[in-house]
């Protein structure tokens, strides 16, 4: 530690300053601060160098705490010698509390101090405290502090859990140590001894609220290292309640107290050291108290912590897998402490149920087999229950699910110790597989049982393919959770649909779920649909092969197994087509129907797709996606039922026009006939009636006002979008300008319908994702975006220049993510249009640049379908050449690909005609 900071040299240099500057207090203070700042910076730099050369996080935290201790002692010496003379004998104790009190300090952490007085000479002591604080503030340190007597501390601790927590994490730094000893003795005797249940309940309730704010899952792909579930604060809380209830001073003492085994105590230290390493690296790298392990930081930390690519995983994925395993271990340790505290009656049952999840209990437990009931939970009657019959490792979870009861933590602890008994023989056991399949397909408790199995390590050992994706993160901005967490949440969504809990939100899937014949195949497909993530081959095809292997083992019939395998292989198909294809184009529906082949498969794929999207993360599912999927379902069902040609195209157009005529009674027949003549047949087939009415009124108003440029906007809460309708003289760059104006206003386009009238006007409907929950806020934003569009179309603002300025101030995602760009041109997906699908790294203004390039290549865009998966954009454009024909020539295809790929490379090209 001596190499971190040289106290003797600091004191000597400050004394020299005092001697040189004499009575000039202001200059002396400034000079002393410079000495202290230099020493503080040197100490921090030394600690950083040791960390980055492979030192542990706890060692780094201890080094920084030691440096801070020495700085405080130097400040105190300086104050009592030169600032507040004759104050050296003033009774005062300076105490570290909070994280600093635990003897570990992160680079960006606050300095938490308690200045303890004895009540005598208070004015003198407070003048010392004030002078110390001014030095710390001059050093630009964030200081949390309190100045109290022993009596004041005890009085406030009786009514304040935060102060109690502070007092169980005290560490002497300097001054009169008898004051601290007196405080701790009285605190233990007068408060701690009789209030353990109260304190434990309060701390666990506080943890629940903190975890809720930070994100309820410990498997968020951008976790909060300090406040998130399974993070450092959970370890702190665990130690606080154990220390308070067992009245011990360190983690090692919890072994002697019988709370932890030696192995569990070592696990505690490993978790703590790893999380501290991550946190210290984050603070040093960002230069601030950053606690969120964001994507841009993950890559840097993976490299600094020495992770290498391997086993099919990138270095980032291996680092984050280690992080999530650590978070899971923190959860296991929390469970152990909670169970032990309950046995000591130091913790109310209600708190336990919040931690483990209260299940609806039956009046009489049944089919317990070799297990017993203890305090309304399934437990083991003896420690040899799994040794006698390893099938019981699966049966325990079946009994809990069957009776809808939680499992006692002691039983889960024994399960963890018995994991080696889950071997090839057990995996081949018909009874074990039957029980597992019943667990999976029981909608009342499947997700909870599977989650417990996963937490205990059983799921990954029984289904070894699942074990490969446990704690595996997906390094992208689209998925919010690790792969295993996503799959378990998808099972939960499926179960909720089957139980009828989502009828209002998901009317179609709730209606068709009871009619599905192969429900066991559907449950297995939902559990396995991403099981091959992290492998070099396409995960859909590899997952289908795994489903064909696992299905028969679990007892599925050949037909069920093939259904499950097909669902896994096609699990992305329906979502991709719904979001990136023109659903009004008959060729789209025909192609999807050929893939699906049967109504049963269509039903199963619909339910799987909805479950999958809803399990991705908060805000990913919305009414707009639901509407697209329902449209695709009904149109495809019609084809599969043989009824798609029952109404010909001409009759459908005429029926559409009649429906609109009925809604415009004030229009004269000649006026309506003129209006009908303005639209081509595609308009009448693609646009729904409410939008036809809106368009008619907007175009009529524009004609009356002789205004060829007009915009309207409205919100659609159900679809989760805001619609902007633009009427303007048609020209090739129109959509590009609109897209650019939206990008300048920060509006994310998710869909675009583009129509041209016979008299040369463009009628474009742009759907942008909502930014505000309240309609009033969203409408004000839409008004600003609409105004920007009008200004851009009038030439009052230059979109290209504004986008360039915006790009300079936007973080470059290319430094964090790698998304290879791709361009696919397909003439088989539509009877009339060439479909150009472009994918690559998303950025502000990308859609503007793509549409600008298409227009410069003399291509007309009939419709655009914009999908964003986090950092990846997938945009599909239905285009023709200037004659209205498809783009057929191979040379034109090559030119089109080249120019669109250059958009991602940032290389503007002199565009030749495509």
Mind explaining what this structure looks like?
The protein folds into four domains: 187 residues, Beta Polymerase, domain 2, CATH 3.30.460; 159 residues, Up-down Bundle (Four Helix Bundle (Hemerythrin (Met), subunit A)); 174 residues, no CATH class; 226 residues, no CATH class. Helix content is 57%, strand content 11%. It has 41 helices and 14 strands. It is globular, with a radius of gyration of 33 Å. The C terminus is likely disordered. This is Bifunctional uridylyltransferase/uridylyl-removing enzyme. Belongs to the GlnD family. It comes from Rhodoblastus sphagnicola. It catalyses: [protein-PII]-L-tyrosine + UTP = [protein-PII]-uridylyl-L-tyrosine + diphosphate; [protein-PII]-uridylyl-L-tyrosine + H2O = [protein-PII]-L-tyrosine + UMP + H(+).
**Strand arrangement across the biggest beta sheet:** 7-8-10-9-13-14-12-11
- Rg over CA atoms, rounded to whole Å, is 33 Å
What is the 3D form?
A: globular
Distance between the termini: 70 Å
Helical fraction equals: 55-70%
Please tell me the overall pLDDT.
Answer: 87
Q: Work out the number of β strands.
A: 14
Query: Which class of secondary structure composition applies to the elements?
Result: alpha+beta
How many helices? The count is: 41
Parts with pLDDT < 50 across at least 5 consecutive residues: 349-362, 909-914
The fraction of residues in strands falls at 5-15%
Domain count, please report it. 4
Largest sheet: 8 strands, antiparallel
């Amino acid at each position: 530690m001596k190499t971190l900071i040289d106290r003797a040299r600091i004191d000597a240099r400050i004394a020299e300053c005092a001697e040189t500057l004499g009575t000039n207090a202001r200059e002396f203070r400034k000079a002393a601060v410079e000495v202290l700042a230099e020493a503080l910076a040197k100490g921090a730099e030394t600690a950083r160098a040791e960390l980055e050369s492979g030192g542990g996080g706890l060692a780094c935290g201890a080094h920084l705490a030691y440096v801070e201790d020495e700085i405080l002692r130097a400040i105190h010496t300086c104050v009592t010698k030169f600032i507040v003379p004759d104050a050296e004998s003033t009774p005062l104790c300076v105490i570290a509390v909070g994280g600093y009190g635990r003897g570990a300090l992160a680079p960006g952490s606050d300095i938490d101090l308690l200045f303890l007085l004895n009540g005598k000479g208070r004015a003198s002591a407070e003048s010392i405290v004030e002078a110390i604080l001014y030095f710390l503030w001059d050093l630009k340190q964030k200081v949390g502090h309190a100045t109290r007597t022993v009596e004041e501390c005890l009085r406030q601790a009786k009514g304040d859990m935060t102060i109690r927590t502070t007092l169980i994490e005290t560490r002497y730094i300097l001054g009169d140590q008898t004051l601290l000893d007196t405080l701790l003795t009285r605190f233990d005797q007068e408060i701690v001894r009789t209030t353990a249940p109260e304190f434990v309940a309060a701390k666990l309730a506080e943890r629940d609220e903190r975890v809720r704010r930070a994100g309820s899952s410990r498997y968020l792909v951008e976790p909060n290292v300090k406040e998130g579930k399974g993070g450092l604060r959970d370890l702190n809380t665990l130690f606080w309640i154990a220390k308070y209830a067992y009245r011990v001073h360190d983690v090692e003492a919890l072994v002697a107290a019988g709370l932890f085994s030696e192995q569990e105590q070592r696990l505690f230290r490993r978790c703590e050291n790893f999380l501290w390493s991550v946190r210290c690296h984050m603070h040093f790298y960002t230069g601030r108290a950053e606690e969120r392990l964001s994507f841009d930081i993950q890559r840097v930390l993976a490299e600094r912590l020495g992770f290498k690519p391997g086993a099919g995983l990138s270095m980032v994925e291996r680092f984050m897998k280690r992080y999530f395993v650590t978070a899971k271990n923190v959860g296991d340790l929390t469970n152990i402490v909670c169970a032990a505290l309950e046995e000591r009656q130091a913790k109310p049952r209600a708190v336990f149920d919040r931690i483990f999840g209260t299940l609806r209990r039956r009046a009489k437990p049944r089919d317990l087999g070799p297990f017993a009931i203890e305090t309304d939970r399934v437990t083991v009657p003896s420690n040899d229950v799994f040794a006698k019959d390893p099938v019981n490792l699966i049966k325990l979870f079946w009994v809990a699910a069957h009776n809808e009861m939680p499992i006692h933590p002691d039983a889960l602890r024994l399960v963890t110790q018995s994991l080696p008994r889950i071997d090839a023989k057990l995996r081949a056991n018909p009874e074990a597989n039957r029980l597992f399949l019943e667990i999976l397909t029981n909608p009342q408790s499947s997700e909870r049982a599977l989650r417990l199995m996963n937490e205990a390590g059983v799921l990954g050992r029984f289904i070894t393919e699942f074990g490969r994706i446990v704690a595996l993160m997906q390094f992208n901005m689209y998925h919010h959770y690790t792969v295993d967490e996503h799959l378990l949440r998808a099972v939960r969504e499926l179960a909720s649909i089957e139980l009828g809990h989502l009828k209002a939100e998901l009317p179609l899937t709730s209606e068709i779920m009871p009619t599905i014949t192969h429900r066991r195949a559907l449950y297995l497909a939902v559990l396995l649909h991403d099981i091959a993530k992290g492998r070099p081959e396409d995960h859909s095809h590899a997952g289908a092969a795994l489903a064909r292997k696992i299905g028969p083992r679990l007892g599925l019939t050949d037909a069920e197994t093939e259904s499950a395998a097909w669902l896994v292989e096609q699990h992305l198909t329906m979502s991709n087509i719904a979001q990136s294809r023109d659903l009004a184009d008959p060729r789209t529906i025909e192609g999807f129907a050929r893939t699906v082949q049967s109504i049963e498969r269509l039903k199963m794929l619909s339910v799987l797709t909805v479950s999958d999207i809803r399990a991705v993360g908060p805000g990913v599912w919305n009414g707009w996606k639901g509407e697209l999927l329902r449209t695709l379902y009904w149109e495809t069902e019609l084809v599969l039922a043989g009824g798609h040609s029952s109404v010909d195209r001409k009759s459908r157009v005429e029926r559409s026009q009649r429906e609109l005529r009925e809604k415009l009674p004030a229009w004269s027949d000649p006026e309506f006939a003129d209006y009908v003549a303005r639209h081509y047949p595609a308009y009448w087939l693609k646009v729904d009636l409410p939008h036809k009415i809106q368009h008619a009124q907007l175009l009529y108003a524009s004609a009356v006002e002789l205004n060829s440029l007009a915009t309207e906007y409205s919100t659609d809460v159900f679809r989760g979008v805001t619609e902007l309708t633009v009427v303007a003289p048609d020209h090739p760059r129109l959509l590009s300008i609109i897209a650019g104006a939206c990008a300048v206003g920060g509006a994310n386009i998710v869909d675009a319908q583009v129509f041209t009238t016979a008299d040369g006007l463009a009628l474009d409907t742009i759907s942008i994702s909502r930014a505000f929950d309240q309609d009033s806020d969203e409408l004000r934003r839409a008004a600003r975006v609409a105004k920007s569009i009008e200004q851009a179309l009038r030439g009052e603002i230059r979109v290209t220049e504004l986008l360039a300025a915006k790009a300079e101030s936007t973080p470059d995602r290319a430094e964090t993510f790698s998304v290879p760009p791709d361009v696919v041109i397909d003439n088989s997906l539509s009877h009339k249009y060439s479909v150009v699908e472009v994918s690559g790294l998303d950025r502000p203004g990308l859609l503007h640049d793509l549409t600008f390039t298409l227009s410069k290549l003399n291509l007309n865009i009939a419709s655009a379908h914009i999908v964003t998966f986090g950092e990846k954009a997938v945009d599909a454009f239905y285009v023709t050449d200037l004659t209205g024909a498809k783009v057929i020539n191979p040379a034109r295809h090559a030119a089109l690909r080249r120019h669109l790929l250059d958009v991602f490379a940032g290389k503007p090209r002199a565009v030749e005609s495509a």
